[in-house]
Write a structure and sequence with these properties.
Largest sheet of chain A: none
Distance between the termini of chain A: 63 Å
Helix content of chain A: 55-70%
Shape of chain A: elongated
Oligomer: homodimer
Number of domains of chain A: 2
Largest interface: A-B, 22 and 22 residues
Order of helices and strands of chain A: HHHHHHHHHHH
């Protein structure tokens, strides 16, 4: 029994490694040559698998891209959906509005950092209905998470008086989205800590009754040294 | 002589009307059917011209789109490049930082209002090298205009102390771009005056030493009733 189980584990592990190699090869080629130029044949070639294996595993180049975005955004260690991760729990139980936003910025922006290199491929594949549906789901999921953050601010009585939570969410979606990240980090070459510090102070100004930041809200986070007020 | 001149004027006027009809037909079809679906044949058909006339006038569907964006963004009355229009002069000679921003928002956002319906066509045509070059030029031109606005704030001593003009321009590009307009107006259905009021208060917060707005900065502008602080 032990031997059979061991063999099965090894087989599963080998399949996992092959899958990972196909995803890595696709990612490298999308980045180097662009999405349109990268054919399934070339991905299979680079990964050292038959093209049939690639199609059997991912169905189409569009579905392969979506899977790649998913695992890249999640990071190597984490596989749980964003809403179920530890930092989301921490954010939704934090007891100051500033801390809620600081945690959202720290961890939410890290998802952008990981996924940003693949965004041009997603844009290039926008006419693929599978990619389009996937991206609409990503966008809707991000808004849902941001709406939960705003709801927590509201529960804490931390929202700026008169600010409607729906409109507050519209603002968060606009400022804390992939377009603003692309504009500041990818195009204008801000460092990630600079971007996070800007996002924290801007969201605090936009959302909070008390926008002036207290160091305890962010002092243990990666970008604390960049927050100057 | 008078007769000949009259005939020439009429011919020039007829050519101008035909050109306008081709542009209008293209715009209607891009909006109704999307950029990819709209063929040069269908545009010619709708405009009541031979497809050869369409190609002779605009060379390609991509160039036709760029010309359409250009005249749509400029509006019916204005044909001068943005940098040469009266409101830009007014903005660059205004003597309060708040007034500089208020004028930029009033008139700059109106360009977005006119051009926004065509942005999906531009995105769909992004792989056309002519469209790609044109759009890069539009984006660079917008940044140049926004950098001039920031330079005027700097001249007036109105910039927040320690704020580098280049970084201030990065922020303006991010907040006062077509992505944020799309997010708030097109997707979240904010009214244009609500969007303008948000942009004014946000840019004032981000850029100015004295972010609290004085009514004289915006009271004569179209969105003044929406500015609540």
């Amino acid at each position: 029994m032990a031997t059979v189980k061991g063999a099965a584990t090894t087989r599963a592990e080998r399949a996992r490694q092959t899958r990972r190699r196909m995803l890595d090869s696709a990612g490298e080629l999308f980045l180097r040559d662009g999405y349109a130029e990268t054919t399934m044949d070339r991905i299979a070639d680079r990964a050292g698998v038959a093209v049939q294996t690639l199609y059997y595993t991912f169905r189409s180049k569009g579905q392969l891209l979506c899977e790649l975005v998913e695992v890249t955004a999640a990071g190597d260690e984490e596989v749980a959906p964003v809403a179920q991760r530890a930092w989301v729990g921490e954010m939704l139980t934090a007891t100051s509005g500033q801390r809620v936003i600081a945690l959202a910025v720290e961890h939410g922006a890290d998802i952008f950092v990981r996924a940003a290199p693949l965004w041009p491929a997603v844009a290039a594949a926008a006419s693929d209905p599978h990619v389009d549906r996937y991206w609409a789901g990503v966008t809707a999921g991000r808004r849902a998470g941001q709406a939960r953050m705003v709801a927590r601010l509201d529960e804490l009585g931390a929202l700026r008086p008169g600010l409607d939570p729906d409109r507050a969410t519209d603002v968060v979606v606009t400022l804390f989205g992939h377009e603003a990240f692309t504009s500041l980090v990818t195009r204008a070459h801000w460092s990630v800590p600079e971007y996070k510090a800007w996002l924290l102070t801007t969201l605090a100004q936009q959302l909070l009754q008390r926008p002036r930041l207290a160091p305890r809200a962010y002092a243990d986070l990666s970008y604390s040294a960049q927050v100057t007020r």
